[in-house]
């Protein structure tokens, strides 16, 4: 069959179809993404290895969190509880946490930031599944819906993330570090950070949005430095030594310093607000800041098709919604009842709420601390 002539309407239709196909297939730098086919796997083995490391790392983190939680619960049930740092089980959770974070760190050396950062939703949903299976927590309808949405969002993220295979060498990091895009971005970020820090420290504003925005601004610097350090280590192992360049140690210092201050601010947020509120907001803020950092510093969406970007952002939205549904009102279901109320017993007069006393021999005492009550004729009787 002869090819259509240049002026033929079929030629225009064929060109549109070819362009749409390019938007859904991995190819040169900046091309769109494709379906999870065999050709897709062959072209993206390095990225998939990074995705596998990130998913495994986040699953190990979720296991470690539940182990530490179980350690605290078991310690609270003991008659003479020991400090948590003396528990072998708690230290096992800490070791698993370190292994999981190591997997996340290594993943940045094999895949773009915009692909690895949103996979943090795996840790949240995985923790919910493990807590239901091993800690006997309730499985709610919102949990099932949130896990489904998070899984669908993860599929779209992996399938439509930017296909940029960069060899992160010291010279590449230096080139991006002095780029005008990054300079403008850092000036704006430092300005916003200083303004929020002023309101937080001087004006005493401790709203969760202010605290977690400060954390997110630091997190954007953290992911940039983490990818730089991890990428240079990977490049040193696979190609040429990069650890002799000063930029490697500069990025190491930035990574450690930003992590320390980020954890400090995050601890302040967890002291003021419950975990069910902090976790989803922090995940959303961190992911957004990391994506912006990857786009500006490493130019990971350079030349990407509009449809690819739209589906990628839709996948982010699904994962965010899934995390919110999984964590919503979870802590309120496990609030311990600190007293026994006899006010609702039919035919009984309510005296007061008896407060349990775990350290004494008696179950509870009256509000004035005495162990006796007065009878109607004025005589005291022992409780």
TrEMBL record:
Domain of life: Eukaryota
InterPro entries in the record: EmrE-like (IPR037185), Mg_trans_NIPA (IPR008521)
Pfam families per the UniProt record, alphabetical: Mg_trans_NIPA (PF05653)
Keywords: Membrane, Transmembrane, Transmembrane helix
SUPFAM superfamilies: Multidrug resistance efflux transporter EmrE (SSF103481)
Topology with respect to the bilayer: Multi-pass membrane protein
TM region positions: 46-67, 88-110, 116-135, 144-162, 182-199, 211-235, 247-266, 278-298, 304-326
Region Disordered, annotated ranges: 352-383
Principal location listed in the UniProt entry: membrane
Subcellular location(s) of the protein: Membrane
Gene3D superfamilies cross-referenced by the UniProt entry: 1.10.3730.20
Family: Belongs to the NIPA family.
Protein name as annotated: NIPA-like domain containing 2
Organism: Rangifer tarandus platyrhynchus (Svalbard reindeer)
Lineage, broadest ranks: Eukaryota, Metazoa, Chordata, Craniata, Vertebrata
């Amino acid at each position: 069959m002869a090819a259509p002539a240049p002026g033929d309407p079929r030629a225009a239709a064929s060109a549109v179809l070819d362009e749409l196909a390019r938007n859904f297939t991995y190819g040169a730098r900046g091309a769109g993404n494709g379906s999870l086919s065999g050709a897709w796997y062959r072209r993206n083995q390095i990225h998939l290895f990074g995705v596998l490391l990130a998913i495994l790392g986040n699953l190990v983190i979720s296991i470690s969190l539940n182990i530490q939680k179980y350690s605290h619960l078991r310690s609270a049930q003991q008659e003479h509880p020991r400090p948590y740092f003396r528990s072998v089980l708690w230290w096992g959770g800490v070791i698993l946490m370190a292994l999981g974070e190591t997997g996340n760190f290594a993943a940045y050396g094999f895949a773009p930031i915009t692909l690895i950062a949103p996979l943090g939703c795996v840790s949240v949903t995985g923790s919910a599944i493990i807590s239901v299976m091993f800690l006997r927590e309730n499985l709610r309808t919102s949990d099932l819906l949130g896990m489904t949405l998070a899984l669908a969002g993860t599929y779209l993220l992996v399938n439509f993330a930017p296909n940029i295979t960069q060899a992160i060498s010291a010279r590449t990091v230096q080139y991006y570090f002095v780029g005008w895009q990054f300079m403008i971005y850092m000036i704006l970020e430092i300005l916003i950070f200083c303004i929020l820090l002023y309101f937080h420290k001087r004006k005493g504003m401790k709203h969760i949005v202010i605290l977690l925005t400060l954390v997110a601004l630091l997190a954007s610097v953290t992911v940039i430095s983490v990818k730089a350090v991890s990428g240079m280590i990977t490049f040193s192992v696979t190609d040429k030594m990069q650890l002799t360049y000063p930029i490697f140690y500069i990025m190491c210092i930035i990574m450690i310093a930003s992590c320390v201050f980020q954890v400090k601010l995050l601890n302040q947020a967890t002291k003021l607000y419950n975990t069910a509120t902090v976790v989803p907001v922090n995940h959303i803020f961190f992911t957004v800041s990391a994506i912006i950092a990857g786009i500006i510093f490493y130019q990971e969406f350079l030349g990407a098709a509009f449809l690819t970007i739209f589906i990628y952002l839709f996948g982010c939205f699904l994962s965010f919604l899934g995390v919110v549904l999984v964590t919503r009102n979870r802590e309120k279901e496990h609030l311990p009842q600190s007293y026994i109320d006899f006010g609702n017993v039919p035919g009984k007069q309510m005296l007061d709420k008896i407060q349990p006393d775990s350290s004494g021999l008696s179950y509870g005492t009256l509000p004035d601390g005495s162990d006796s009550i007065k009878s109607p004729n004025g005589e005291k009787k022992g409780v």
